[in-house]
Specification:
451 residues, alpha+beta, seven-stranded antiparallel sheet, 3 helices, elongated
């Protein structure tokens, strides 16, 4: 049998095996998606019922509380208005009793006078004096009917309109979304960090102007698991990307994001968590260089004398197209010959103003290949940050952006290779990266941390 035919069959079988494996993976992904739809729908229904039950309970309790308050007010007004009327009634009853007594006594005197004329003159005189003292011509004041309380309840006259407003408000209460309005779309590796990017999905008309990015250690599976996990806020602001730093290499982290519309107080639902890890170790300064002391896993340097040479990074760990941050931990004496920068190669020279070096002095001067630029940055301050950012234009040219104290300068830098340094293996071609050293040179008093 022809070996080529046999080989063709073998290759076809291998292709079929690979194809079936890929289909199985797609089926697993599809089953996970179907489960997400069904499970999320069930959770959404449960959340709706729980929320609306609680809302109805709150509304009923509020109505009952208001009813009790109004009833107490009715009782208070009733009591306040009823008390003086009762007192007035008691006074009238008392006066009626006195008048009845006078009437009875007077009748008795008149009846006895017919029988014994003149014998009761003394009693009649005393009776008349007594009656005068009772002031039978003076009547107590009694409140008129219009002065007396007539309790009313002032309820909205346009009850139908109020009910309509309530019904309309309830009709617009809550909404159902197929997914959260903002989702994590890409995560890229950085040294001991991850660049997380997100975007609005489905409905870009929500006009979101604020975002909150959170992360946790570990891989969070599924949309519902993250409700039980404690996340930490890494960023809150208007941008749609953020570099989460100080991460451990080869450790999985899960990220989620939420948005907030302009003027809104509450955040949108969380996106589906996306897990990622960085395999890139953090930036490090080169150890064993006289005059410099390293700490914090070689990320922080300080001078212990007067260094005579430049301190470079441990390796070409800065990748063009990314950013590197250097924080001024402690301030020393400002000098134009001391500062921070990037370099194509490392050398033993003590002069940073040389070919293949981008150098930013602590006083704000910018030097490219030893030549000073006309544009200057502000001097650094304690706790300020110097940020180098680059964009690759071609295999030997980058666009550099340097930021100090919110001041930015941008320029193009042609990376002429130094012939004595073998860099050909690291000059990027199609699909390759361009990596540089970062550097520092300063005397005693300074301390700088790289991130």
């Amino acid at each position: 049998m022809d070996d080529s035919i046999v080989q063709g069959v073998i290759e076809t079988v291998d292709t079929a095996i690979n194809y079936r494996t890929q289909l199985s993976q797609l089926l697993d992904s599809l089953h996970e998606a179907k489960n997400q739809v069904v499970t999320s729908a069930g959770q959404a229904r449960g959340k709706l019922r729980s929320h609306f039950d609680h809302l109805k309970q709150c509304i009923n309790e509020a109505l009952d509380d208001r009813l009790r308050i109004l009833e107490r007010q009715v009782s208070s007004v009733e009591q306040a208005a009823h008390k003086p009327l009762c007192e007035c009634e008691d006074l009238l009853q008392e006066r009626v009793g006195l008048a009845s007594g006078v009437l009875k006594e007077g009748k008795e005197l008149l009846e006895s006078e017919d029988k014994v004329h003149g014998s009761k003159i003394g009693e009649m005189t005393a009776f008349k004096k007594k009656s005068k003292e009772l002031d039978l011509n003076s009547l107590p004041e009694v409140p008129s009917i219009w002065e007396t309380a007539c309790i009313h309840v002032d309820l909205p006259r346009d009850e139908e309109n109020i009910q309509k407003q309530l019904v309309d408000a309830i009709k617009d209460y809550g909404c159902v979304m197929a997914r959260a309005p903002v989702q994590v779309v890409e995560i890229s590796e950085r040294p001991a960090a991850l660049l997380v990017q997100w975007a609005e999905v489905d409905d870009p008309g929500l006009d979101l102007d604020g975002f909150r990015l959170q992360y946790c250690v570990g891989t969070v599976h599924g949309f519902g698991d993250h409700e039980e996990v404690e996340f930490v806020t890494a960023y809150e602001g208007p941008l749609t990307s953020h570099v989460v730093r100080h991460l451990q290499p080869s450790v999985h982290y899960s990220f989620r994001v939420a948005g907030r519309a302009a003027g809104a107080q509450s955040w949108s639902p969380w996106s589906i968590p996306v897990s990622a890890t960085t395999t890139l170790p953090h930036h490090e300064w080169r150890s064993g260089i006289d005059g410099y002391q390293l700490s914090n896993e070689n990320t922080t340097i300080q001078s212990d004398g007067r260094p005579t040479c430049i301190l470079y990074s441990r390796r070409r760990s800065y990748t063009c197209g990314h950013s590197v941050m250097m924080k001024i931990v402690r301030l020393g004496c400002l000098s134009n010959s001391e500062g921070l920068g990037l370099a194509v190669a490392d050398s033993n020279t003590s002069d940073p103003l040389q070919k293949g070096v981008l150098f930013v002095s602590f006083q704000g001067s910018v030097f490219v290949d030893g030549q000073e630029k006309t544009t200057k940055l502000p001097p650094v301050t304690e706790n300020s940050v110097v940020i180098f950012d680059t964009e690759v234009l071609r295999h030997d040219k980058v666009r550099v952006t340097v930021e100090v104290c919110e001041r930015i300068v941008t320029f193009d830098w042609t990376l002429d290779m130094v012939p004595s340094i073998p860099l050909s293996s690291e000059i990027p071609g199609e699909g390759q990266e361009l990596n540089l050293f970062f550097l520092a040179k300063f005397s005693s008093g300074w301390s700088v941390a790289v991130e």
